[in-house]
Amino acid sequence: MSENPALLPLVFDEPRGxxxxxxxxxxxxxxxxxxxxxxAGLPGxxxxxxxxxxxGRLVTDPDEMTDLPAGQRDALANALLPxxxxxxxxxxxxxxxxxxxxxxLFDGALVESVxxxxxxxxxxxxxxxAGCGMACPFCATGQGGLQRNMSTAEIVEQVVSANRTIGxxxxxxxxxxxxxxxxxxxxxxxxxxxxxxxxxxxxxxxSPAGLGMSARGVTVSTVGLVPRINQLAExxxxxxxxxxxxxxxxxxxxxxxxxNNRFSVAETVEAAWNYAxxxxxxxxxxYAMMRDINDQAHRADLLADVLNSYGDWxxxxxxxxxxxxxxxxxxxxSRDEDMAEFVRRLEAKGISTTIRDTRGDEIDAACxxxxxxE
Length: 374
What we know:
Layout: H1 30-39, H2 46-56, H3 73-80, E1 85-93, E2 98-105, E3 110-117, E4 122-125, E5 129-131, E6 146-149, H4 152-167, E7 180-183, H5 193-204, E8 218-222, H6 226-233, E9 240-244, H7 250-256, H8 265-279, E10 283-289, H9 297-308, E11 316-322, H10 336-348, E12 352-355, H11 369-373
Parallel strand pairs: 4-7, 7-8, 8-9, 9-10, 10-11, 11-12
Antiparallel strand pairs: 1-2, 2-3, 3-4, 5-6
Binding site for S-adenosyl-L-methionine: 187-188, 221, 244-246, 324
Keywords: 4Fe-4S, Cytoplasm, Disulfide bond, Iron, Iron-sulfur, Metal-binding, Methyltransferase, rRNA processing, S-adenosyl-L-methionine, Transferase, tRNA processing
Region (Disordered): 1-24
């Protein structure tokens, strides 16, 4: 690796001169939307109507906004609802209940989102950055490096688009609404902190200011940017924190998650515990199961001991993830019997554990694979 992972910044500044995405109503709170319209010489009170069309009706076509004056529709939509991204490739799996979309942003950057329909819920996995700067060697996105942060509106648009798709009845199971959003797509969400928190607020703001989702249905994942975890705990948004730990010891985690050279396992897990203490929300520990790398029985015991060293209440749940393999990588999926033993050992020490239901294996489900292929 050419750069020292211990020096990786917490926030990636955009290169000077890079053109920013157009401002969109999802980037702004209600007051900001009114102000932008007034700056454009348009009636500020129309902002609420535009918000209702976008977040409530999931509409961006001015011709469908019949409650707006015909002579102002185009100007109003152009001011607050500019086009942010185009789908350039869509793949389906699991009998149509998993839909992966490759998006092209305004500047040509590529990102991915995945819609997953289950019997009792509908989840969309969204990207927060084009690429990723965390350089985890088993991750497809990490191999391509970071291109840029996404804006709040670009993040939110992935959810709004998923709502359009599932609301149209295109997905088996009939029309529905997205119930869960997970920030587990391309990028490190907490390295794009301001935009991600803005997106979470838009998702949870009551309609028509936002999508009106429950914060309990939103999960923000991180590889362990400790100061940002602590900052998120104080935001007053009780979303779920998912910590991508992947190893219980510093020696191995330094290799698998290079940011661990800056924030140790102990520091990272303590920050996660503090998040659970402050928000009263159980933290999810994400652990990608890699054959003969991190799936040994003694590491299951060590993981349980590390997690049990904080608090005397059920503050954590371990989510074991059968690795989505990247072609040509030395990191491969654990054997079923090793995963079962890992679960047994964690549960024997009182740690709530599940193995994640895998989706989309036949469509390069690991985020970053589709963009890399394109």
